[in-house]
Amino acid sequence: MESSGSEPSMNKTSSKSSSVIESIRGCSLAGVRIPKGELKRKITMPEYLRFAIRDAMAAKDIDAGKHHFDSVSKGGDATGLVAPELPLVVFVNSKSGGRHGSELKSRLQDFMGEEQVFDLQNVKPHEFVQYGLACMENFAALGDCCAKETRERLRIIVAGGDGTVGWVLGCLGELHEQGREPVPPTAIIPLGTGNDLSRSFGWGGSFSIKWKAAIKRILDRAINAPLGRLDSWNLVISMPAGAELDTPYALKHTEEVALDQDLEIEGPLPKEVSCYQGVFYNYFSIGMDAQVAYGFHQLRNEKPYLAQGRIANKIIYSGYCCKQGWFFTPCMNDPSLRGLKNILRMHIKRLNCPNWELITLPASIRSIVALNLSSYASGRNPWGNLKPEYLEKKGFVEANSDDGLMEIFGLKQGWHASFVMADLISAKHLAQAAAIRFELRGGTWRECFMQMDGEPWKQPMNNEYSTFLDIKAVPFQSIMVKGENN
């Protein structure tokens, strides 16, 4: 009786809540309803162009879709040659975000068409750049004004984590190198764990697929929101040849790169070296944090069923912190060897300064991070919001993602890192730099751990010869679409 008597009240409340949610679902940021048909017309490419891009990528030949253009242009169908006002292409990492990735892909394909929504498990971003965009550029060269305007107006959405976003940005960066501008601006749908790139540009730290109409709101923001810029950083590793390096996806073996001659190198150089190169957008780190991340990634690859969900991930991370001795340094045989000062020298170049400067490292530092964004480790800000007096005293400037500078800080033991991550204290500020040179010499260490935008690896070290890591700004910036929080 009590149960049945309370039901109408609950249903009434639920009905009111549903009506409120429905009203929110159909509204944009300004509170104006987003008409589905109008939005679809703004972002959807003409059929002949969608099919041409699809065929060019499938055949890996930019001319494979030309017959679609020929059939429309010869038929004189002018309506088929009208460029959309704000065309979009979406890349979805269907493995990110649990089941959300695949569901999001399906809903976007239903709304925009399969030819403008790509699953990164099947279509790689460099294939779109090399064949899809090139197909449009080829049509434009043949006098197709629709293809020309579509190419110029195009924006990209990446649905995935920070690694996925960086992958797409790196492929789009090839357009700069090839002189194929403009480079499409990039918006983000956060499907990863940390989502620090997404947070930094106002797209939030997570995405809920529960509100189906949120798709319209996101698409509307992606085409109407203002633009920002993002620095990216080139990492080159030069190490003695012979040692094997199990590189993450972001690092590629490359030809020998000459070291900067402005900085004198102490000690002998090996006769043969191996070089690796990669680009990062968020951070690069050396030390205990990378060692913990490496252990976690190894476990996730070997036993993926153990690392499901954020709570499980945090428990595993905590376990590795303890196992590696980051918290319980007395348990280690010789914890002083864990200080990076024993194996590392760091030189920097300050902004607009041609000279290298040696930075003295505190003996207690066990992890060094070079940070590009204000968001790190799922939204933390270890650099902190520094007061003007402190900035002036240290010779620092306010940190931004497009200022040509990296913020370099250190973490001591796990307790110090925990307080930093809880925003109770700031990390140990070391420097702001426009370029960095790390020199590592093994000594009693045979290896150390590094990570770049969340991709860790084990770096072998040599007792006789140094390993060098050079970090410099990529000469062009990525163009980002700002979300609602920016």
TrEMBL record:
If you read the UniProt record, what top EC class would you report for this enzyme, in one word?
Answer: transferase
Record has ATP-binding as a keyword: yes
**Catalytic activity, as annotated:** a 1,2-diacyl-sn-glycerol + ATP = a 1,2-diacyl-sn-glycero-3-phosphate + ADP + H(+)
**Pfam hit, one:** DAGK_cat
Q: What EC number(s) does its UniProt record assign?
A: 2.7.1.107
Q: Which domain of life is it from?
A: Eukaryota
Any one Gene Ontology MF annotation carried by this entry is: ATP-dependent diacylglycerol kinase activity
Keywords associated with the record:
ATP-binding, Kinase, Nucleotide-binding, Plant defense, Stress response, Transferase
Describe the location of the DAGKc domain by residue ranges. 83-238
| SUPFAM superfamilies on file | NAD kinase/diacylglycerol kinase-like
Q: Name one GO biological process term.
A: phospholipase C-activating G protein-coupled receptor signaling pathway
Question: What's any one GO cellular component for it?
Answer: membrane
What function does the entry list? Phosphorylates the second messenger diacylglycerol (DAG) to generate phosphatidic acid (PA), another important signaling molecule. PA is required for plant development and responses to abiotic stress and pathogen attack.
Similarity section = Belongs to the eukaryotic diacylglycerol kinase family.
Self-association state and partner proteins as the record states: Monomer.
Q: Which PANTHER family match?
A: DIACYLGLYCEROL KINASE (PTHR11255)
How is this protein named in the record?
Answer: Diacylglycerol kinase
Protein source organism: Deinandra increscens subsp. villosa
Q: What is the lineage of its organism?
A: Eukaryota, Viridiplantae, Streptophyta, Embryophyta, Tracheophyta
